[in-house]
Design a protein that fits this description.
The complex is a heterodimer of chains A (208) and B (87). With 208 residues, chain A is α/β, with parallel strands linked by helices. Chain A is 48% helix and 12% strand. Chain A has a single domain (3-207), classed as HUPs (Rossmann fold). Chain A has nine helices and six strands, in the order βαβαβααβαβααααβ. In chain A, strands 5-4-1-2-3-6 form a six-stranded mixed beta sheet, with helices on both faces. In chain A, helix 5 (123-130) links the parallel strand 4 (108-110) and strand 5 (137-138). Chain A is globular and about 45 Å long. Chain A starts with a strand and ends with a strand. By secondary structure, chain B is of the alpha+beta class. The chains are: A alpha/beta (208), B alpha+beta (87).
Chain lengths: 208, 87
């Protein structure tokens, strides 16, 4: 079985996605992008509680890397087109996860994305986001509908954690792009120092 | 300025008030006012995040979001921010 890196948000989907990969026997590392001050403390607490359940269930260590994402969001809001902010944000998440994967000797990245649930999860946006990385991206829930995911979350005990009070991301623009061209995205990224931002993010990584 | 009722946002961890009609705030001026009052501010260009005893987000469109699930605390902070916005 392979070693992979899972992006964990604290939401309903990511622990379910991780559950399927662990059930298949993959050895997983978790990454949480800490989005404060654009959210509150709750996503981090939820991720820790999700991992506790899954660590016990699968008797796996599952290290958690927490990476600061707020400063990246500020740089994006100050310098790039807000309309495509969610895609640019996702590209940084993927790049960060890939750096952790290289450090951890992992060979794939994973997420809890399902098609069409939120603005960032259209096919063109997913393509624009993951074009930032070279590693294979695995999406165990891609064809699931929300009710199916919620049913599994209840079964494994993560649903009640995910639905505790918490703040949605305040950096989401009023009208996020649902279709994006890679050319436009790359043009926007020329306005920021991608490698410098990423180096800074990785310098402040904390392992829990 | 008139605001919609301070309402608990969907995630139940914050209260939000939206100005009616929406208006454009001079965030740079507001940031200066907040800093003069000793309130630390994160300036993300399209919004300010002011660190009172709870964080308060002030959007360029006048939207105010108080990160507290407690209605009376949120109302108190909302009044404080509103007076700064309107001064």
């Amino acid at each position: 079985m392979a070693r992979g890196v899972m992006l964990m948000s604290g939401g309903i989907d990511s622990p379910v996605s991780l559950h399927y990969l662990l059930r298949q026997g993959h050895e997983m590392v978790a990454v949480h992008m800490d989005n404060r001050p654009f959210t509150d403390d709750s996503p981090m607490a939820k991720v820790l509680d999700h991992l506790q359940i899954l660590r016990e269930r699968y008797q796996q260590k599952i290290p958690l890397y927490v990476l600061p994402h707020g400063p990246t969001q500020i740089a994006l809001m100050r310098k790039t087109d807000r309309h495509v902010g969610c895609i640019l944000c996702r590209r940084f998440m993927w790049r960060s996860a890939e750096r952790i994967a290289e450090r951890e000797g992992a060979t794939f990245l994973a997420t809890g994305e399902a098609l069409g649930q939120v603005a960032s999860q259209t096919l063109s946006n997913m393509r624009s986001a993951t074009a930032a990385v070279g590693m294979p991206v695995v999406r165990p829930l891609i064809g699931f509908d929300k009710q199916e995911i919620e049913a599994v979350a209840r079964e494994i005990g993560t649903y009640a954690i995910s639905t505790r009070p918490g703040l949605c991301c305040q950096a989401v623009p009023d009208r996020p792009a649902t279709r994006s061209s890679l050319v436009q995205i790359l043009h926007e990224e020329e306005r920021i120092e991608v490698d410098d931002i990423l180096d800074e993010v990785l310098r402040h990584a904390v392992i829990l | 300025m008139t605001y919609s009722t301070l309402r608990l946002c969907q995630g139940r961890a914050a209260f939000e008030a939206v100005p009616i009609p929406r208006r454009s705030l001079d965030l740079r001026r507001l940031r200066e006012r907040l800093e003069r009052d000793g309130v630390p501010v994160v300036d993300a260009r399209v919004m300010l995040i002011a660190r009172f005893e709870r964080e308060v987000t002030i959007g360029r469109d006048g939207r105010i979001l108080v990160k507290s699930g407690d209605a009376s605390e949120a109302a108190r902070l909302f009044d404080r921010v509103r007076s700064l916005v309107e001064s």
